[in-house]
């Protein structure tokens, strides 16, 4: 489709269906119109299908090599990332780099880092002492994901979607298994001319021959590469060519025979060897040889499985601190002329270890993770070595779009008697607790008790709200940078006072602890002489400048003997040197009660580091270098805390602008930090409306997982949704949605009436903090949102069934005076706004102007329509003083009801939406209360992660922790997940569980 906003370019989307277990599904091509830099003006319905961006608009993707089907188009992906910081959406990512050697084109990866032509080496396994001389037994599992044409439907039905490729046992010395490599042989570095001369083709009629020895017997070759010979047969039947000149990802099907070895410039290469493959401009790319074969045209080819360097992945220019020897395994393969081989390299497989730098001095490269462009996934390699099958390309689920249907996972866990595991959670930048609350509710549904033990936020009112709903949590009102410094000091104190030693008290006892206060007397009485006071106990700890005297450092809150707790003061640690016993008591008690996490204590860290410097609502943001803005540095601090505490799982949330500005440098940095720490990672964008809320609200979520854990999946939508805007086109693959044309049983999109129609009428100046409901719930959403905490969690500690059911925080921002009179004049109908006021004329260009023929004034003498409305957005906006309507949604719940510039008025009442109504749009249960002023409560709700989104992610987290999840990037939630409480879901299963065993 033509899009005039993109300079006449067409942006195409192609979709990939989930691959069933019994075969590849056909693929269809569709075109959609994407506005990449502005919000879509018209509201569209999205059936939760994920549109795959075409190479011409998708800038940063890696090689894919899937087979193509007759007259149907696979979703194509450029084989390798164009890792240039100057890429823009007008560049074609289908511009694959080719290396032309004497007229032959290399299908090597795209623009990669230049590596000196390497050494000829031999791979040896020290456990057996065998050199790699038996190349034909086993191969790495791989994914074929590129376009090929010429397969008809009959082939699709008989072609399995997954080809299991056996991995050679470790004692066979296969180069992908953990190995120790011998010293490299003599260097053989060639110039461009020498390399070209060494591969000169003898004549136009005489092909260059590279293979050594006899061809592999045909029956063995067909057994090992049956998929290729099947494709050959289908190609012959269809009469299509094996390789089209305009499609360099085409799989070559006119195979004649296979060989075991090839000789390039006097060096013997075998199947399974790793090598430099020459690319465009002399670039050397690293790949593993999977096949040697000759075509019926007497041309020699090899099949290569590629490795990525860090800069070739989504990380791109945020890879500078990564080890240059580190590679990432990929399931991407393609066919290339044999003469593209440069030299052997040795590549070792290592097991990733968090906090341990991987170095392999005897190898040219090493790899410890797998990378896929799907959801920008970095994952620990599967190393069971149990796969069976032919030497065929595998449709590895990591690269595919298949999803795990675990709708019965909860039932399976309950029926199998799975005991609830307890995980501890640290909520950074917690706000009022939306993310951690949702994660807790979702994890409960997957037999996991996710306990929010610590929370942190610099907003005092948000901390008040958090404490109001989670009294058991250690909530700290301070900045994350100071919190990290405190954690490091706390670790030192725990070591110093030997918290695990029974003899730690020796030599620290004193009769009393008297110190000189630095900041006046405990009572702050001016005439009290500066003297020594006796410390009764230490009651708190912080790092910073609590006395605001410009001297940050470690401070303890001191309770003074003979004084009340109101007179406690913060004292620097330097003034408490002679209070060893009091300090040790505090540290030991704090260690036992875990007032602060030590490394390994927090199983999960979640948070949404604020990035006001990149928000779309910030007109003064640093677009070119966002990390230079101090307001964006919290992503760095977040990752520093992860690095220090080393949790099992990480979940970071942020606005989609981190994918838009400065070539997504902030998102790439976050991914890079996790991967550099050897954490698995996966990035997705999720719309709140897809999980049953009447707002769109697209946000970015980044999973991280310790290499020993399963990387959590992204939960697929449960609801249809009304689309308000699109994610950046280069991250279209990261949109969490069903593949296009996938048949999904989705619930209808939630609208405003579904959420708030049951709430009682209140005036604009309502001040009551609580009130009765008056009306019964009218929708499933309302019934669910009114549930008690016990219904939501099923935890006996949350049994509040005897509490009186009251409605909290149902009060709006008070509006009085002239603006209230203006609101009262807005008609109570759909689409009404300030344009419906008398005295406003709408021109042919959709701009408004004042009717000068008649003056419309308020009783105060002020104009009914203020002047600023005629200039706001050149007078073309319909949002000021606009009413929402029952069958509509909101784009995003904001931090303040800006009724003068946004649609924020209640459909039928002369006021803005109340605090509770906004909370419902964010999915907060009605039992959840908020503290602070009215404005502060609006801000807390607008900044929160929607509860249903976090709940779905919490469910996925629990499933991954129990290792019930699959290897696909997505999972399917249980039916009616979004509107069913814990008790409803568990009762509906009625599993025959041994309850005594569960209690035990």
Automatic annotation (TrEMBL):
Upper classification of the organism: Eukaryota, Viridiplantae, Streptophyta, Embryophyta, Tracheophyta
Protein name: Cytosine-specific methyltransferase
Family matches, as InterPro entries: BAH_dom (IPR001025), BAH_sf (IPR043151), C5-Methyltransferase (IPR050390), C5_DNA_meth_AS (IPR018117), C5_MeTfrase (IPR001525), C5_meth_CS (IPR031303), Chromo-like_dom_sf (IPR016197), Chromo/chromo_shadow_dom (IPR000953)
Organism: Rhodamnia argentea
Family of the protein in this entry: Belongs to the class I-like SAM-binding methyltransferase superfamily. C5-methyltransferase family.
Highest taxon, organism lineage: Eukaryota
NCBIfam families: dcm
Chief location bin: nucleus
Domain Chromo: 533-586
């Amino acid at each position: 489709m033509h899009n005039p906003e993109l300079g006449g370019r067409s942006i195409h989307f192609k979709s990939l269906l989930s691959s069933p277990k019994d075969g590849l599904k056909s693929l269809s091509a569709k075109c959609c119109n994407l506005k990449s830099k502005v919000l879509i003006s018209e509201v569209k319905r999205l059936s939760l299908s994920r549109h795959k961006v075409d190479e011409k608009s998708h800038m940063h993707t890696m090689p894919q090599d899937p087979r193509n089907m007759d007259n149907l188009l696979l979703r194509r992906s450029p084989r390798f990332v164009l890792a240039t910081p100057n890429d823009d959406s007008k560049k074609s990512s289908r511009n694959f780099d080719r290396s032309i050697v004497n007229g032959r084109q290399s299908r090597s990866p795209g623009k990669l880092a230049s590596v000196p032509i390497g050494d000829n080496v031999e791979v040896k396994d020290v456990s057996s002492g065998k050199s790699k001389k038996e190349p034909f037994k086993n191969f790495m599992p791989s994914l074929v994901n590129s376009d090929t044409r010429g397969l008809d439907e009959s082939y699709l039905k008989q072609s399995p979607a997954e080809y299991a490729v056996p991995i050679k046992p470790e004692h066979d010395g296969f180069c992908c298994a953990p190995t120790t490599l011998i010293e490299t042989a003599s260097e053989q570095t060639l110039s461009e001319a020498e390399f070209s001369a060494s591969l000169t083709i003898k004549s136009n009629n005489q092909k260059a021959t590279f293979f050594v020895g006899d061809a592999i017997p045909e029956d063995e070759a067909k057994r090992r590469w049956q998929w290729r010979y099947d494709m050959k047969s289908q190609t012959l039947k269809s009469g299509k060519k094996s390789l089209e000149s305009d499609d360099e990802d085409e799989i070559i099907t006119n195979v004649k025979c296979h060989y075991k070895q090839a000789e390039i410039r006097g060096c013997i290469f075998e199947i399974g060897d790793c090598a430099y493959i020459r690319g465009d401009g002399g670039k050397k790319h690293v790949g593993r040889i999977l096949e040697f074969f000759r075509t019926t045209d007497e041309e020699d080819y090899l099949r290569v499985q590629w490795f990525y360097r860090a800069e070739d992945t989504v990380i791109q220019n945020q890879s500078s601190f990564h080890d240059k020897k580190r590679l990432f395994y990929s399931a991407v393969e393609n066919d290339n002329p044999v003469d593209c081989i440069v030299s052997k390299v040795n590549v070792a497989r290592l097991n990733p270890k968090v906090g341990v730098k991987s170095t392999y001095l005897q190898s040219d490269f090493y790899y410890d993770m797998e990378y896929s462009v799907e959801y920008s996934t970095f994952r620990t390699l599967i190393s069971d070595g149990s796969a069976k099958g032919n030497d065929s390309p595998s449709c590895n689920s990591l690269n595919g779009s298949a999803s795990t249907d675990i709708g019965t996972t909860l039932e399976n866990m309950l029926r199998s008697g799975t005991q609830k595991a307890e995980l501890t959670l640290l909520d950074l930048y917690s706000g009022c607790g939306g993310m951690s609350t949702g994660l807790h509710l979702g994890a409960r549904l997957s037999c996991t008790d996710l306990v929010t033990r610590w929370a942190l936020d610099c907003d005092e009112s948000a901390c008040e709200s958090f404490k109001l709903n989670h009294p058991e949590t250690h909530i700290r009102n301070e900045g994350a940078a100071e919190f990290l410094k405190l954690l490091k000091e706390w670790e030192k104190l725990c070591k110093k006072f030997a918290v695990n030693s029974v003899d730690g008290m020796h030599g620290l006892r004193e009769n009393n602890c008297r110190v000189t206060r630095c900041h006046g007397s405990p009572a702050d009485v001016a005439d009290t002489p500066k003297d020594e006071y006796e410390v009764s106990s230490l009651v708190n700890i912080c790092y910073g400048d609590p006395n605001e005297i410009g001297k940050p450092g470690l401070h303890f809150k001191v309770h003074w003997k003979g004084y009340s707790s109101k007179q406690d003061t913060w004292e620097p640690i330097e003034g408490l040197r002679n209070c060893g016993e009091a300090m040790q008591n505090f540290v030991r008690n704090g260690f036992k009660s875990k007032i602060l996490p030590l490394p390994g204590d927090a199983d999960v860290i979640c948070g949404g580091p604020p990035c006001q410097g990149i928000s779309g609502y910030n007109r003064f943001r640093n677009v070119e270098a966002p990390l230079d803005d101090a307001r964006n540095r919290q992503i760095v601090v977040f990752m520093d805390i992860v690095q220090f505490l080393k949790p099992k799982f990480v979940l970071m949330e942020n606005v989609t602008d981190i994918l838009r500005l400065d070539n997504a440098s902030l998102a790439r940095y976050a991914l890079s930090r996790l991967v550099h720490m050897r954490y698995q990672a996966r990035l997705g964008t999720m719309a709140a409306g897809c999980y049953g809320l009447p707002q769109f609200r697209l946000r970015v979520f980044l999973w991280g997982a310790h290499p020993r854990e399963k990387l959590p999946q992204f939960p697929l939508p449960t609801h249809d949704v009304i689309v308000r805007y699109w994610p950046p086109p280069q991250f279209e693959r990261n949109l969490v949605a069903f593949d296009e044309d996938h048949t999904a049983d989705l619930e209808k999109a939630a609208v405003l009436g579904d959420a708030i129609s049951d709430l009682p009428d209140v005036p604009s100046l309502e001040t009551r903090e609580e009130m009765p409901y008056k009306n019964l719930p009218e929708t499933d959403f309302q019934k669910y949102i009114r549930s008690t905490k016990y219904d939501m969690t099923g935890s006996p500690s949350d049994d509040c069934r005897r509490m009186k059911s009251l409605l909290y925080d149902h009060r709006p921002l008070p509006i009085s005076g002239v603006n209230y009179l203006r609101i009262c004049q807005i008609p109570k109908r759909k689409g009404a706004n300030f344009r419906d006021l008398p005295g406003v004329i709408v021109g042919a260009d959709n701009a408004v102007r004042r009717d000068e023929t008649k003056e419309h004034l308020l009783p105060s003498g002020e104009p009914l329509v203020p002047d600023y409305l005629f200039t706001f957005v050149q007078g073309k906006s319909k949002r000021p003083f606009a009413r929402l309507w029952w069958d509509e949604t909101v784009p995003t719940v904001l931090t303040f009801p800006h009724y003068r510039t946004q649609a924020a008025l209640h459909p039928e009442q002369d006021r803005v939406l109340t605090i509770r109504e906004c909370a419902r749009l964010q999915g907060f249960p009605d039992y959840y209360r908020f503290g602070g002023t009215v404005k502060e409560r609006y801000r807390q709700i607008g900044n929160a992660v929607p509860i249903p989104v976090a709940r779905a992610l919490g469910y996925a987290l629990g499933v991954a922790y129990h290792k019930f999840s699959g290897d696909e990037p997505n999972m399917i939630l249980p039916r009616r997940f979004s509107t069913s409480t814990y008790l409803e879901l568990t009762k509906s299963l009625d599993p025959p569980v041994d309850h005594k065993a569960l209690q035990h």
